[in-house]
Write a structure and sequence with these properties.
It is a single chain. The chain has 290 residues and is an alpha+beta fold. It folds into two domains: 180 residues, tricorn interacting facor f3 domain (Immunoglobulin-like, Sandwich); 74 residues, Orthogonal Bundle (Arc Repressor Mutant, subunit A). Helix content is 25%, strand content 41%. The protein has an eight-stranded mixed sheet with strand order 7-6-10-4-3-13-16-15, with no helix packed on it. The protein has a five-stranded mixed sheet with strand order 11-1-12-17-14, with no helix packed on it. Helix 3 packs across helix 5.
Length: 290
């Protein structure tokens, strides 16, 4: 059976320094994904002076970036980056104050492995926005790995084209969440060792869990489970225990108040520990307490 490799691009959030959101005029995102699991993202931003003095910008990248650069039309800009809650925060200064009604273009280029995860029989790339900025112009281009087969879903692309062995999808209009599913022919070969290891771990875990179940009452088991979880995992587990046993992933985000990226990573860990399972429903997942 094929394994699913999931590429999740989560929560691209733009805020501006010393300016209103209206000063961000254009937002062009290009995501180039590779079979290795690395994603190369290029974010082209166009700022416009809108009454307040505008001298710099602020950007939160999805995940932890392995490389970041910030440039304008003349080259590198002064910027700083820091990791905050498993995300990369970037602040940068413009070369000059933007004159009234003129544009200033900035390119933020970054590479990251932190957006990738494996999941059953297909790959998924998700671009999700939290409080997206108001912009006049928006576009998104996604280039799939070489040899990938695009699996059409509910999303509507203005263009789907082939470039050699790669598929390029593009859209423009209003900023919105986007999900792309695709498969790779190499999944069948590379997934076998991982499948065998996963099966072995599952069998050992099942035996240990069954023996534990025979020795202890259910309430005691639940106390033992929570002792093995960190604070975020325990919060999600207790929510499912009291309001579940199944909830949509978006409901978990809303009821816990945790960031979408944090919930996604927490559910991955709980799934690996066989505490929850995920079931695809439309464009999102239903989380089921095991």
């Amino acid at each position: 059976m094929e394994r699913r490799l999931a590429f999740v691009v989560v929560s691209l959030l733009i805020a501006l320094t010393c300016a209103q959101e209206a000063a961000l005029d254009a937002y062009y995102l290009s995501v180039d994904v590779f079979e290795s699991g690395e994603a190369h993202c290029t974010l082209s931003l166009t700022y416009r002076q809108d009454g307040d003095e505008l001298s710099g910008g602020y950007l939160v990248l999805p995940g932890k970036a392995s490389y970041v650069s910030v440039t304008d039309e003349e080259g590198a800009l002064k910027f700083g980056s820091a990791e905050v809650d498993n995300l990369t925060e970037v602040r940068f200064l413009f070369r000059d104050i933007i004159p009234d009604s003129e544009e200033y273009r900035v390119t933020v280029d970054f590479w990251t492995f932190d957006l990738t995860r494996k999941d059953q029989d297909e790959w998924v790339l998700e671009v999700a926005y939290v409080d997206p900025p108001m912009v006049e112009r928006y576009s998104l281009a996604v280039t799939l790995p070489e040899g990938a087969a695009y699996n059409p879903g509910d999303e509507t692309w203005s263009s789907v084209q082939a470039d050699g062995g790669r598929v390029i999808l593009s859209t423009e209009g209003a900023i919105g969440d986007t999900l792309v599913a695709y498969s790779l022919p190499s999944d069948r070969n590379t997934a076998l060792p991982e499948l065998a290891l996963g099966l072995l771990i599952f069998l050992v875990g099942a035996i240990v869990g069954y023996r534990t179940f025979l020795r202890e009452p259910v309430a005691e088991q639940e106390r033992d489970i929570t002792r093995l979880l960190d604070d975020t995992e325990r919060k999600v587990y207790q929510l499912l225990s009291t309001e579940g046993p199944s909830l949509r992933q978006s409901d978990i985000v809303e009821r816990t108040g945790l960031p979408k990226s944090t919930v996604s990573r927490t559910l991955e860990r709980l799934e690996r520990k066989k505490i929850v399972t995920k079931e695809r429903v439309g464009r999102e997942y239903k989380i089921i307490l095991a």
